[in-house]
């Protein structure tokens, strides 16, 4: 009887395993449901954005940088935002102001008016080792609201930098949505963050009316499932993956991966793209968005790309 029970148990487990395998195989081979592509991506590709306004050639995140990028015919800006002491969003990357200005302390410890008094060209060094923009009248930080108003024809790719667990981090998603709506910019702003929690918060607040980019964890999940042959099981939450060309030695620019992203209606974008050959290769392989520190290179690429 014991032997018969073992045989029955073994047969049952084998059958269960077979059924499970068939179920998983069917699930992974089934055609996935793709999401719709938001209007942010409705203009002709490729998009080329100036990273922090073009930080290789002008003081980053300043009016001086954004003016220069716009003059080079850039499609838009890749920027970051942080919240000031008086709860105003400024276009700024770092936690503190020390690296890029003549001031000191955390952004959250200064009011918008105080930050606007800082010289954001103070530390910038050009390729000749000079500091040509120290004291320049346009080397100052903009609020996010000013950025939207000053450049109404530019697309804005904005990264929410404040820690989602901080008091300021909790406030940022709602405040930036208010700025976007006030400027009727829902179709020309893409909101991203390394913190997936911030993207989720923003998407709930915006009710899905503004394009969003994937956080690090979602990009990692998507790439891993693609690599393992389980790409059909991946359900994207964001509209675009914006990635470095490689991560810890892992190349993220293979034509097959880019093709998979496009097949899934996940817009493929890459940052740190600062030479023409790489621009050409990525666009040839199907990349949609490039983020560069060199708006001058972007202009040259636009003139030669066919």
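^ Assign residues to that structure.
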């Amino acid at each position: 009887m014991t032997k018969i029970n073992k045989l029955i148990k073994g047969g049952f487990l084998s059958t269960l395993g077979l059924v499970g395998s068939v179920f998983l195989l069917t699930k992974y081979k089934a055609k996935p449901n793709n999401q719709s592509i938001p209007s942010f991506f409705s203009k002709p590709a490729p998009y080329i954005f100036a990273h922090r306004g073009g930080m290789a050639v002008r003081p980053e995140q300043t009016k001086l940088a954004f003016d220069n990028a716009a003059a080079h015919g850039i499609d838009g800006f890749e920027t970051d935002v942080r919240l000031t002491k008086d709860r105003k969003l400024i276009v700024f990357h770092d936690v503190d102001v020390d690296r890029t200005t003549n001031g000191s302390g955390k952004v959250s410890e200064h009011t918008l008016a105080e930050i606007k008094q800082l010289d954001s060209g103070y530390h910038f060094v050009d390729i000749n080792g000079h500091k040509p923009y120290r004291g320049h009248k346009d080397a100052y930080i903009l609020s996010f609201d000013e950025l939207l108003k000053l450049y109404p024809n530019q697309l804005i790719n904005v990264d929410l930098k404040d820690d989602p667990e901080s008091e300021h981090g909790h406030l940022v998603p709602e405040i930036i949505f208010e700025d976007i709506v006030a400027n009727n910019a829902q179709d020309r702003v893409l909101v991203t963050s390394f913190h997936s929690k911030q993207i989720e918060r923003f998407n709930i607040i915006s009710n899905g009316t503004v394009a969003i980019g994937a956080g690090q964890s979602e990009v990692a999940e998507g790439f891993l499932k693609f690599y393992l042959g389980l790409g059909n099981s991946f359900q994207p939450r964001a509209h675009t993956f914006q990635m470095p060309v490689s991560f810890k030695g892992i190349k993220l620019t293979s034509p097959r991966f880019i093709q998979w992203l496009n097949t899934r209606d996940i817009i493929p974008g890459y940052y740190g793209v600062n030479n023409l050959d790489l621009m050409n290769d990525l666009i040839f392989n199907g990349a949609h968005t490039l983020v560069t520190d060199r708006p001058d290179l972007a202009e040259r690429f636009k003139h030669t790309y066919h």
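The longest strand covers residues 76-83.
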